[in-house]
């Protein structure tokens, strides 16, 4: 099923009517709005939609999609043209009022189209009424979108979508309505509660909508002198949110049963009066304004951004307003983006389309945009704590997150947690830790020039200190204060080429290392490869290179690696055996790094030796590559490990630098000035910590409950061999949400594709570049643009969708969240195949 | 009034009973809990508290604090000992059920103490009933705390506090109860709604409590077969929160009026049965466990932190678990911290005390902890967007914040907004911007060694790049990769010494600059001082120092200043005339920075000249010193301006670097690699942007509505002279929330105090240090400890409170939020005077 766009058309104003409780007058207010809008905008059309309805219903003549309960109705035209009187099929007289209310929509037959999508007969909550006949949430959204599209195609007008019960009343599947409909991003009119306790239920309902990203544009309720709810609410919403509250007199009391005709007349009179009031007219004009204003804001954002924003990683001279994508919102794995050049589009075309977030919002997104559990975690901590300065104090979210990260790390070396704000600052901290530990152990003077050891194409962030950890490259070489402080080794990489998994080593490694493997898992079977002696050629290269630089007088303070994948340096999958061998060489030969050659292996196997080993798992860790820790792919335990991005599930910045006790001890002294005097204002901010706890909990739960088994069995498990047999053993698996057959198919597009690989939620396509292979290459740009063009106009009803992806020079990567479903992957794979066929 | 502690005692379990709506059975469930707890814990006491009650009430014999309505009651002892039958003073029979429910608390007279604090006679919402007799929120909290303290002193037991109406039903002042009581941090039992629509109202009420930081420990409701709410809710809360839901049968229907005795008997039977059920017993045991667990967690946090956390800016060898302050929560300007050594304290002593957040949580806090508007802003953006990668895309919060910051800056030079995560990264960006602009203008080669120009004691963050912008100091000099890249000038500082405002200049400036002023505002009257020629000696010093370094071959790429106050460098108030003169010298003599001496003043007065001028307002800006922009104190417009901390009101990290168009243009080219290739994953994260928009809105509203007039008139306005006359002109004011007489009194403690100053919400006391005056000095430590000891045991009822402050070497500073009230300032001032008298 295609992703569903939020509901926004230029000339169809769609409002959703939510109730702060049952029986507060949702249908009456909707009827009044329908009546008034069809009167005021007499050349347009007004429509009413009830997606899900329960109880005996008079909507039999509407095209219910299913489960419709036919009920006799008759037209009663002498009161008002188009008014319907229901012949109620039961004898329960006390229900007459409810039936009356439902039937009121019908009196606008002159101008009001109406539809019930799903009708259940029992007058109870939809989740009970639907038992045995559950309609999926996705199905309901699709139907609502289709009906709205039909209305939009029919011309300008209004569409009022009435929900059932209160904001959190469950839909047929049991999902609370406020969650069910959130992705549609309809602006809301909330019907407040005039009764005793109604202030509370109205404000509560409002907040539940607000914290789900709804824009409540107006609140309406009945007047009641005794409780005075409307007075309080008018003041409250004006002061706190600037939202207008409209109050109308209550409908007349109905004399149930004794004189139906009288009741009808009373109600008709009430409607006639209410619909003509200045309040209602002003409210509709206001809602119309707000609707237009939302579109205006969306359409002006690109120009505004072009004028004011200084974008990261962007040559703005080459950026036009049309290149800037305005987003209205995001939910699940999709942004809702403004469809380009919509002003030239026909009336009926939607202004928003779903855009797959193909960079996982810069590799942060893992649990879906608009994840309400993360929202609630953030809100809880915001209110319980705000921020708490983090020296000499402790709060539960920080301590729990520290414990949780140490547990997830499964690395007996790590015992300490230092907090900072992002991967770059976390790596600065890691470097400071490592250099101090090395310098003090080796007894070097404070002014000793110290280098780091790493791989070419590494990237650790954009602050000067972390830039200095990377060899000169596009990102850093033009930065005035950049000064590469290290030695960076060549490395062998892994790709699927022409259907085969290959290790490609630079020429200096010799031809010995260029192997082919039937399965990616074979490459990660390090034990087997070491027993075969595959690592020896690596060891030789590493030792000779190291010795060459040490002989020149280099002093090293750290080995810094991005385990398995070099991210910003080009989405390169490094042979894990090479990284493991590098760690082992450094660790097992401590004496070579020491001027005195006096170092021996430490007795405590949690102590570092050779060099402190820093793993930058900011990108690769926390399930991005399919495992909680990327270090496990290397079967190596670092002394320092840095984690960010996915840790907060794609919500707020936070980073932790985990360290071993002996690294920590290198800063211990009687002098305050020997301490790690690093910190940021919002260190360990409770909101970030609480969100991280929730994110990790969700990720671990998915892992444990086998949520990714569909993906693992999509070709990847066939790649197992004897030592990779248990599905339950996380650490023995190499898999991706991207099906193996897609990866292999791409690798066979040999004229344009140099190689491809997939792990976890990452798919990286290395395109052949005639114009060089660096960051400045434009080889992948064509494919990116094709994916951005998406499905084109697509289905008129559900609209088009596209893929927002990022390129790194000649590499196009697509990165999903950890919540991707099989069907979603299939849809994107299809578009990707089309795109590749067209572009290559 | 003293700040109020959250309610936590070791042996008194305090639970607050909230209702998800009116008429859901709060009183019945509370009665059942009272009855069952007094039975199960028969050697302890159970108490019931209704802080605010409306309607005719049977509580006349309780000690209501005020406004009690005497109502006749009689004891009816033949049904159950201690049962009270109310003689209802009105004849409204339909109210009999409500009255019955209220009276049920009484039947536990054997073991249950009960109290109503504020009784209003009208049976409507308290905010209406209280008209003309409004009790302040603070007063209610104090009474609740006092009563709870009494109960705690009386020995172990339970206290159930019943709220009125629903979660958001207003208290007497109109504040919704969920907000009113949030600071007490009582764990909650939520009474769910069994009626149609009750799923929605229960979940809504729960979420409203949750997003206010409440811990809802259990949900209870009546069973109803038709709606099945309890089945749904059990499943829902188990799955989402692991919170147990208990359902009990509904009370018997009462035959109102016709046979009162029968009604009573029916209810008595119901109570007897309900109170003895396994469900109720298990629920109470669970609540007891949760209560103990909360205390256990609090008491174990310091040890846990000591073992796992690597603290920023902390020599952990000198840190013992007892030095780590565990906090339970924070609200307003106070943390709620664990009272030390509470295990030795008597039963009745509270475990939590309010600790004034005297560092404004590292200078971030401005709008109070637990500010619900900020929470809601964060939650809205979290759900509407999550995170959105910020290259080539735009979302409303980012654009609105950019516009808002540019508007607040009131600086015609600034037109561009670059986002990052914290002050340090924002300054890295600023430095990269400035260096590139200078290098390209002056035509220097990419490898040119470039310095920054600044002041001694400057501090711009802890990443290596910003460390390099500061002269060698305690923070940076032991960092392996630190390399000061600049020239840092001496400066004259301002202090109140012995009652007088003095400018103290280093000896090299000559004695000409050591002036005394009656008022601080006179020092900030730059126009007057320049007309007197006060700046000439500064100009001379600056020029000669600059020429000396330029002659040595230094090439400068930026002037970087913290306007007005050097923060982490020691809370030093710099003579604003000196900083202005420095800016002017740099700007008006562009040729001296150019190798070719060919530079002339630019024609566009928004263009930079001499050097790009960077203001680091991370600490000093956004009202911290009393004005929206610290730059206005210097009457100078920087080319680049960096803002963080207060921008997000003390919630989440976010930073903006504002720049002029000509700085921006320095990166424009046809080459992508010439762009500012800097960025962080969570760049412009919507949560941070939305929170910042809300923070700025609140700060600006306070400014506009004169919320600080009480402070301005506290001595500071007397310091005005002719040119500082209008209260309304923000930019002509120099003021502080700390009263001038306090500042002067402190300055007169000459034996211990070297000087003192206050501006905005900052008060900095420079103590005399025999052991050196640097960051490592311990001169201020004694005073800090004294403030932390606080008021001691204080009032047994309301408990003690203290001040959590930070020192920078020999400087102790206290920083309030921008929401501090006069009374709060007075209380802290009093403690501060006591502390100074005792310590000096």
TrEMBL record, chains A, B:
GO BP of this protein: biotin biosynthetic process
Subcellular location: Mitochondrion
Keyword annotations from UniProtKB, A to Z: Aminotransferase, Transferase
InterPro entries: Aminotrans_3, Aminotrans_3_PPA_site, DTB_synth_BioD, P-loop_NTPase, PyrdxlP-dep_Trfase, PyrdxlP-dep_Trfase_major
Listed Gene3D superfamilies: P-loop containing nucleotide triphosphate hydrolases, Type I PLP-dependent aspartate aminotransferase-like (Major domain)
A Pfam family per the record: Aminotran_3
Plastid keyword on record: no
Domain of life: Eukaryota
MF (Gene Ontology): adenosylmethionine-8-amino-7-oxononanoate transaminase activity; ATP binding; dethiobiotin synthase activity; magnesium ion binding; pyridoxal phosphate binding
Keyword Nuclease: no
GO cellular component assignments: mitochondrion
Record protein name field: Dethiobiotin synthase
């Amino acid at each position: 099923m295609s992703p569903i766009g939020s509901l926004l058309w230029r000339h169809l104003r769609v409002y959703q009517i939510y109730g702060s409780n049952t029986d507060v007058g949702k249908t009456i207010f909707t009827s009044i709005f329908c009546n008034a809008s069809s009167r005021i905008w007499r050349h347009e059309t007004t429509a009413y939609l009830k997606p899900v309805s329960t109880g005996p219903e008079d909507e039999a003549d509407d095209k219910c999609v299913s489960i419709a309960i036919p009920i006799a109705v008759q037209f009663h035209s002498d009161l008002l043209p188009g008014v319907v009187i229901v012949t109620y099929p039961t004898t329960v007289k006390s229900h007459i009022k409810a039936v009356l209310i439902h039937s009121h929509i019908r009196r606008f037959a002159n101008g009001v189209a109406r539809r019930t999508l799903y009708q259940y007969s029992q007058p109870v909550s939809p989740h009970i009424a639907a038992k045995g006949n559950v309609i999926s949430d996705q199905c309901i959204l699709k139907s609502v979108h289709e009906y709205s599209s039909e209305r939009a195609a029919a011309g300008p007008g209004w569409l009022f979508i009435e929900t059932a019960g209160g904001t959190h009343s469950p839909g047929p599947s049991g999902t609370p309505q406020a969650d069910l409909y959130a992705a549609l991003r309809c602006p809301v009119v909330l019907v407040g509660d005039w009764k005793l306790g109604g202030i509370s239920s109205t404000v509560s309902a409002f907040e539940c909508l607000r914290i789900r990203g709804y824009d409540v544009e107006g609140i309406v309720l009945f007047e009641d002198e005794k409780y005075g709810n409307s007075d309080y609410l008018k003041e409250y919403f004006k002061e706190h949110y600037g939202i207008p509250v409209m109050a109308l007199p209550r409908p007349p009391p109905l004399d149930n049963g004794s004189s139906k005709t009288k009741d009808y007349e009373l109600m008709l009179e009430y409607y006639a009066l209410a619909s003509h009031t200045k309040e209602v007219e002003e409210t509709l004009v206001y809602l119309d304004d707000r609707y237009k204003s939302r579109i205006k804001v969306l359409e002006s954002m690109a120009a505004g951004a072009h004028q004011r924003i200084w974008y990261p990683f962007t040559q703005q001279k080459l950026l036009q307003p049309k290149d800037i994508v305005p987003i209205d919102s995001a939910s699940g794995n999709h942004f809702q983006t403004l469809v380009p050049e919509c002003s030239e589009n026909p009336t009926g075309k939607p202004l928003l389309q779903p855009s797959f977030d193909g960079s996982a919002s810069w590799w942060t997104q893992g649990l879906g945009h608009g994840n309400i559990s993360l929202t609630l975690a953030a809100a809880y901590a915001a209110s319980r704590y705000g921020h708490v300065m983090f020296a000499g104090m402790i709060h539960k979210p920080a301590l729990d997150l520290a414990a949780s990260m140490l547990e997830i790390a499964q690395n007996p070396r790590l015992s300490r947690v230092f907090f900072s704000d992002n991967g770059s600052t976390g790596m600065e901290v890691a470097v400071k830790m490592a250099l101090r530990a090395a310098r003090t152990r080796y007894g070097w003077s404070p002014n000793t020039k110290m280098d780091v050891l790493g791989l070419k194409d590494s990237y650790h962030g954009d602050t000067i200190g972390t830039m200095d950890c990377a060899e000169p490259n596009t990102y850093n070489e033009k930065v005035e204060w950049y000064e590469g402080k290290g030695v960076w080794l060549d490395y062998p990489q892994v790709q699927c080429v022409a259907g085969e998994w290959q290790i490609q080593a630079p020429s200096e490694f010799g031809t010995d290392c260029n192997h082919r493997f039937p399965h990616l898992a074979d490459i990660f079977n390090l034990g087997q490869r070491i027993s075969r002696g595959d690592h020896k050629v690596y060891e030789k290269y590493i030792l000779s290179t190291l010795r060459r630089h040490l002989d020149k007088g280099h002093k090293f303070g750290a080995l810094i690696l991005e385990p398995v994948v070099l991210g910003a340096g080009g989405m390169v999958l490094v042979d894990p055996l090479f990284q493991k061998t590098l760690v082992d060489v450094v660790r097992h030969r401590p004496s070579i790094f020491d001027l005195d050659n006096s170092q021996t292996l430490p007795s405590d196997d949690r102590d570092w030796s050779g060099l402190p080993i820093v793993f930058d798992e900011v990108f690769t860790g926390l399930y991005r590559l399919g495992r909680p820790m990327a270090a496990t792919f290397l079967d190596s335990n670092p002394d320092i490990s840095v984690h960010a991005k996915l840790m907060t599930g794609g919500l707020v910045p936070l980073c932790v630098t985990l360290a071993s006790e002996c690294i920590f001890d290198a800063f211990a002294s009687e002098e305050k000035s020997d301490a790690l005097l690093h910190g940021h204002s919002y260190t360990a901010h409770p909101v970030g910590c609480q969100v991280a706890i929730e994110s990790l909990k969700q990720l671990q739960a998915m892992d444990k409950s086998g949520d990714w088994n569909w993906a693992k069995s999509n070709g990847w498990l066939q790649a197992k061999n004897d030592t990779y047999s248990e599905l339950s053993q996380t650490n023995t698996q190499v898999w991706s949400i991207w099906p193996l057959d897609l990866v292999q198919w791409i690798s066979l597009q040999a004229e344009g594709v140099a190689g491809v690989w997939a792990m976890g939620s990452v798919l990286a396509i290395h395109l052949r570049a005639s114009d060089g292979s660096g960051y400045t290459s434009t080889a992948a740009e064509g494919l990116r643009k094709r994916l951005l063009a998406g499905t084109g106009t697509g289905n008129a009803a559900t609209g088009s969708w596209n893929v927002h992806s990022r390129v790194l020079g000649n590499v196009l990567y697509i990165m999903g969240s950890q919540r991707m479903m099989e069907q979603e992957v299939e849809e994107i794979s299809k578009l990707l195949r089309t795109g590749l066929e067209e572009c290559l």
